[in-house]
Structures are given as C-alpha cells and as structure tokens.
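testing teh design pipeline on a random one, pls ignore if ur not involved
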C-alpha cells in the first residue's frame, strides 16, 4: 500500500510511547497514515507526536473511560479509525512466588482486560471503515515457559484475536495477532546479539495492514534467527 493509498487513513496505537508501539507509529506515519498515539507516559508520547505529526492521547488501557476518550478524540480530530493496534502490555518476574500479587493484577489487567477494552472502544469505528484490528501477543502466547504468568496472559491475547476474528467475520474488518520472540526494547533487561529490533516487528505490522482487502493475515510469529525456542 502506497502513501497515496493511505492518505487520510487513521492508525491508532496503544502502548505507543516506546518499543514496538513507537516503531510502528513511525512506520505508519512514513506510510502516510495519520497516527493516534495512546500511552500512560505523556512526556514520551508528546515528543513522539511532535516528531511524526501525530495526535498524543494519554491513556491507561485498563480504564474504560480513558479508552473511550482516545477513540472519541480520534474521531473528533480525524473522523475515522482504519487501524487499531492493541499493543500495550508488560511482563513481570517469572515464578508463582517470584512477583507480588499486586504486580500480577496490574499485568493481567493491562495485557488482557486492556486489550479487550481497546477492541470494544474501536469496534464500531473499525466496522465503519472495514478496518484492521491488530493485537500484540508473543511467542510465549504459543508455548508455555516455566512459572510465567505473562505467558498465560499472551495465550489469552492469541485466543482473543481469534475470537474477535470470528465475531467480526462478515463486517470487512481484518484481524492480525503479532507474536514476537525476544525483542531488544526496554521490555527486556537482558540484551544479546541477534535480538529482534522494534523496527522488525513494525515491518511485520505494516506487512499485514498493506495486504489487499480480501487478504487477512491472521497470525505473524517473528523470532530472532538465534532464538532456540
């Protein structure tokens, strides 16, 4: 899809202030989309919005009123939403005794409930434009890792993507689940040579949204070549 073909179309991203979200925002802007950036980190969000000419909207994805406000603002400013990327999420320490219950609760609410709220908030706007819904799951949304409640949440996101696809079938809305392996972002504290970069995942996202309307790329699993699982 060329910049001319995306001119005027609107791309909404949660978790947009850094990592995969920020990389995708830059890629979408370069492709000609008007970009709506949603995240809790307002300083980073405003800086990115100034860089790419996007619309910054502070948002806690676990709060329904915040999600409604982001969508309302996008529609008020731009009149439409063509792509919604439910990307916000985070991980905690592994082990069923390795993290506090409070952190567990925050992660589960962000990674699962927050994604469901994004789907709900953007639903009617995406049906109106026959748009595209994308969800960030993970490689560990396909395989379990020891003591990882994060893995459990990403299994939930993968299932949510298929559930949404089935519900939206017949509306013209396409649904893609993005499943990265290890990516070199602030998300991971350990760094090693050959990790994926956020731009690698952004290219996968843009590949999915650039397909013709009759092509629905439902899942994209992207691993580093050197990753052994």
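output:
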């Amino acid at each position: 899809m060329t910049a001319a073909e995306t001119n005027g179309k609107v791309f909404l991203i949660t978790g947009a202030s850094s990592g995969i979200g920020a990389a995708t925002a830059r890629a979408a802007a370069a492709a000609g989309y008007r970009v709506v950036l949603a995240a809790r980190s307002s300083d980073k969000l405003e800086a990115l919005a100034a860089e790419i000419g996007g619309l910054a909207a502070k948002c806690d994805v676990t709060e329904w009123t915040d999600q409604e406000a982001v969508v309302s603002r996008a529609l008020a400013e731009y009149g439409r939403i063509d792509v919604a990327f439910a990307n916000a999420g985070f991980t905690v320490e592994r082990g069923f005794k390795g993290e506090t219950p409070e952190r567990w609760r925050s992660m589960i609410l962000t990674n699962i409930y927050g994604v469901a709220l994004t789907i709900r908030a953007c639903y009617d706007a995406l049906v109106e434009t026959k748009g595209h819904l994308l969800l960030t799951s993970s490689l560990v949304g396909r395989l379990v890792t020891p003591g990882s409640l994060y893995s459990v949440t990403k299994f939930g996101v993968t299932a949510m993507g298929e559930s949404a696809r089935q519900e939206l079938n017949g509306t013209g809305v396409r649904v893609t689940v993005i499943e990265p392996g290890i990516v070199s972002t602030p998300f991971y504290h350990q760094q090693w040579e050959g990790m994926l970069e956020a731009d690698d995942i952004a290219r996968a996202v843009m590949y999915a949204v650039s397909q013709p309307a009759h092509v629905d790329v439902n899942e994209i699993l992207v691993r580093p070549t050197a990753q052994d699982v």
